[in-house]
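Let us work through a complete example step by step.
Step 1: write down the sequence.
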Amino acid sequence: QLYEPTLLVAILDSYLSMPLPAEKLDEIVNDALLLLSSADISTLPYLVTFLIENAPLKNINFFVESFRSQFKNLPAPKENSTKAQCSDCYLTVEALKQGLAKRNDLASEYLKAIQSQKNNLAIYSTDIWVLFCL
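Step 2: predict the structure and record it as tokens.
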């Protein structure tokens, strides 16, 4: 991990409180996308919320494909998971559900991306959760 998980939420929140130009916010969103595959489970609910709420309108197809490739498998609670880890998993699914309910454009593009897959191996566990949420 290249970042301190406990600071990620504060850093992303501070970016949102600044009056940033759209291009700079797009850069931050792209950097945050790269964190998805290695993010600590405790930061996933906020990271998913941040990404969905700030997904760029211009290149939404690129955003969806990047999101899908970085976030292939939603972490599931394991037998030895703590209550906090289980809560983080459920909160991440809830973040997906609420975010996609607010962003019809993103939900529509995500659904198109799933439907366009010709190979079943290109459907990820996160895609299944997205379908449940829609």
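Step 3: interpret the result. The CA atoms of residues 111 and 131 lie 8 Å apart.
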